[in-house]
């Protein structure tokens, strides 16, 4: 799939105010600094469609972008920012829970994970929650340019081993680098496939 048009639609903090249309949507979520904005900009061929926040973890907004006039790309806030207080963690959880439970247009959640790190509890727990709530998801490994091919394979293998302790199979996954434009076509073709099935 080629992205011919990408435009910002709306940012808001309440799922009720998300666009009413029934266009299929795909959400992108992950720990702060995982490379989510860079990935969205790579996918849409824009330099700054998704903006990085100066204070990660502070802006808790659901951002809708309209792509090719036929699907929504949703940029969700980053989680796991160390300096966020307990109460804002709770608010965040509620906010995210509501988005995922109420947004019936959601076709797939893409959970971004930095390929350099060993599997992190916060990401594993989040994916566990998605699975338990019947929300389809895939993993996007980011920043693949930072590792050599052998190390990429080893890190993905670590993930597989840990995921297979709870899941029957490894979810669909993508290896990407926004700086080297790796994984873009695979990801867009997958979205295209889901849009047509
Ligand atoms: P976000 O907070 O998840 O939206 O992350 P950003 O897209 O703002 O990226 C966080 C940092 O990681 C920035 O310094 C980016 O330049 C860097 N970054 C993002 N993607 C890549 C990538 O694919 N490769 C490398 N080497 N750095 C990246």
Give an overview in words:
It is a single chain. This protein has 197 residues and is an alpha/beta fold. The protein contains five helices and seven strands, in the order ββαββαβαβαβα. It has one domain: Rossmann fold. The protein has a seven-stranded mixed sheet with strand order 1-3-4-2-5-6-7, with helices on both faces. The longest helix has 17 residues. The two termini are 14 Å apart. The structure holds guanosine-5'-diphosphate. Guanosine-5'-diphosphate (GDP) binds next to α1.
Portion in strands:
15-25%
Q: What are the bound molecules?
A: guanosine-5'-diphosphate
CATH C-level: Alpha Beta
Tally of helical runs: 5
Helix content: 25-40%
Please identify the structural class as seen in this structure.
alpha/beta
Q: Enter the CATH topology name.
A: Rossmann fold
Question: Radius of gyration from the CA trace?
Answer: 16 Å
Between the first and last Cα atoms, what is the distance in angstroms? 14 Å
The rough form would be described as globular
Write the CATH homologous superfamily.
P-loop containing nucleotide triphosphate hydrolases
Mean pLDDT: 90
Strand/helix succession: EEHEEHEHEHEH
Per CATH, the architecture is 3-Layer(aba) Sandwich
**Oligomeric nature of the chains:** single chain
What are the low-pLDDT stretches, counting only 5+ consecutive residues below 50?
Answer: none
Features:
single chain, 197 residues, alpha/beta, Rossmann fold, seven-stranded mixed β-sheet, 5 helices, 33% helix, 21% strand, globular, binds guanosine-5'-diphosphate
